[in-house]
Amino acid sequence: MRDEVRRLAEKVLGMSKADETEVVISGGEEALTRFAENLIHQNVARTELTVTVRAFVGKRMAEATTNRLDENSLRETVERAVEAAKQMPEDENLLPRLGPQTYQPVHAVDEAILTITPKERAELIVEVVGRCKAHGTTAAGALSNSFSYYAIANSNGLFAYYERTNFAFSITVATDEGTGWASANSFRKSDVDVLAVGERALQKALLNRNPRELPPGAYRVILEPPAVADLLLFIASGFNALAVDEGRSWLVGKLGQKVVGDNITLVSDVYHPLHQSCPFDVEGYPTQRITLIDKGVAVNLVYDRVTAQKHGVAPTGHSVDPTGAFGAFPRGLVMEGEEKSLQDLIAETEHGLLVTRLWYIRTVDPMKVLLTGMTRDGVFLIEKGQIVSAVKNFRFNESVLAMLNRVEAMSQVERAGAPEWEWAEVVPALRVSEFHFTDVTVFAG
Question: What is the C-alpha end-to-end distance of the chain, expressed in Å?
Fold first, then answer.
């Protein structure tokens, strides 16, 4: 596929009369089987390919996109981009396109995922659903396998190419009183045990019965990795050097200072064995492994080329926009953990709550990373190291920064969060001494 994409990129570049031209090609194949009410109800497969042409005329830039690959359509797309660029206002921040770059190798393609058939997906789902039916529960979810690629080429000789497979399973199991949920995704098929994921969701659902209503307040909590991943994503944008320059980051005036507990180390590392993510950013600049928080101290920001040039530092390869208008975002988040299991954290807890995951999260105060949202798919009361009952869902109001100053213990890390490679994180479960719940919710899940 790499050679085919490169030939297509060179063909498009040869059609352009702009001062500089950049071509972004993305696509792939995805197959998905979806089920609900214990029945498979959808099986789909799709193939996509998109070509985006960015034309640079002096200090002006515009882009045009097509999914048609015939010569006339490609030429028309190039001409639309060039003509649109001529009409754009000048952008003094616009930098020349990069020349050829060298990228650290990543290995994110598993041949075993490429050969998964609809029959194989259906058989796995049937076995999972059978176990759920045997316990009088209903299951819904999706199992998918995909192959995707992403490439950037320009008229200065740059060609950057990344390809990835993905195997993802998500399931919600419901009883009359509540739900249980679990998911897993990886570029390696062997990392996703579909039957084990289904069993985890089933046991959560069976446990999530006769929920006890507890009063709102501050509780010691164990946040499972999906809940941790959802919260961490909200602090990530603060490491954007442009956001700090513009005064809209929670890190303004705090770089080099202690911002969270001494036991917190956070890294942007697309090369982590559980990530193996794209080794370049949207400009084709090589992505660096960057320590963001080192033992509680905020030590680094991430830079696109425009902001890096203003500061006289090297870019970090985290740009999210070819013009530099939005700065940089730290992909491939990794939080260091400890050599403990989730069960170890539970066994060590005298009194507290176990939280499966969170949803409907919204920002209350971005400068404090104060968030509100709700628990979902299982909150459980822990007494003397044992889960003793289900608990009704809560609404929470909590600062992620304050929470990370109250982490008592962590589990081993795992891949969690969104199944897309851009947003997944590698994180542990966290036991937090104090987490603030402000109300009891009315939904049963």
Answer: 44
d(C-alpha 57, C-alpha 159), whole Å: 21
- Taking only the tens place, the pLDDT of each residue in 323-377 is 888 999 999 999 999 999 999 999 999 999 999 999 999 999 999 999 999 999 9
- Residues ≥6 apart with Cβ < 8 Å to 246: none
SS3 116: coil
Mean per-residue pLDDT of the chain: 95
Above 80 in pLDDT, residue 444? no
Q: Edge-to-edge strands of the sheet including 333-335?
A: 297-298, 290-294, 266-268, 333-335, 425-427, 414-416
* Residue bearing tokens 């999530």: 208
User: 240, 327 in Cβ contact below 8 A?
Assistant: yes
Contact 113, 147 (CB under 8 A): yes
Taking the CA atoms of 13, 15, 20 and 26 in sequence, report the sign of the dihedral they define: negative
Residue pair 172/300 in contact (Cβ under 8 Å)? The answer is no
Cα–Cα distance for residue pair 139/310, rounded to 1 Å: 53
Is pLDDT of 52 > 60?
A: yes
Main-chain phi, psi angles of 439, to 5 degrees: -165, 160
The DSSP-derived string for 322-390 is: TTSSS-B---SEEE---S--HHHHHHT-SEEEEEEEEEEEEEEETTTTEEEEEEEEEEEEEETTEEEEE
CA distance 217 to 208: 21
